[in-house]
Amino acid sequence: MIGGPLQATLVEAFTAAPLGGNGAGVVLLGEPAAAAWMQALAARFQQSETAFLWRGADGEWRLRWFTPSCEVPLCGHATLAAVLALGHWGQLAVGQELALHTRSGPLAVRLECLGPATAQIVLPSSGLEPQPIPPYLAQLLGDAPLAYWSSPLGYRVALMPDAFNLAGLPEPSAELRGKDRQGFVVMQALGPKEAFGLAQLADPNQPRPTQGPQVLGQPANYQLRFFAPGLGIAEDPVTGSAHALVAPYWQEQLGQSSVVGWQPSPSPGGMVCTAAAAGRIALTGRGHLLWDGSLEAGSCAPDLANWGVCGP
Question: What is the 3-state secondary structure of 8-62?
Answer without folding.
Answer: EEEEEECCCCCCCCEEEEEEECCCCCCHHHHHHHHHHHCCCEEEEEEECCCCCEE
